[in-house]
Design a protein that fits this description.
46% helix, mainly alpha, single chain
Length: 65
C-alpha cells in the first residue's frame, strides 16, 4: 500500500493508495457476518497462490515490484 513508512513507497505504481485500502477494509468490517479474514481484493492472488498452483509466479511478480 502507498505510505511513507518506507521512503518513496507512496508513489510506487502497483501499490494500493492508502485511502482505497482503508475504504475497502472498512467495507469488509461492516459485512454481516464479519469475514474471518480481512483481505483486500488486490491480495487474493497471493493469499490463494499455493492452493491454486501459481505460488512461484506470485513470488516472482512480487520480486519485480
Amino acid at each position: 500500500m502507498q505510505t511513507e513508512l518506507t521512503p518513496g513507497q507512496s508513489t510506487r505504481e502497483g501499490y494500493m493508495p492508502l485511502d482505497e485500502f482503508i475504504d475497502e477494509v472498512m467495507t469488509l468490517f461492516q459485512a454481516k457476518p464479519t469475514p474471518k479474514e480481512i483481505l483486500v481484493e488486490n491480495v487474493n492472488f497471493l493469499r490463494w497462490a499455493e492452493r491454486d498452483g501459481h505460488f512461484d509466479q506470485a513470488v516472482e511478480m512480487l520480486s519485480k515490484m
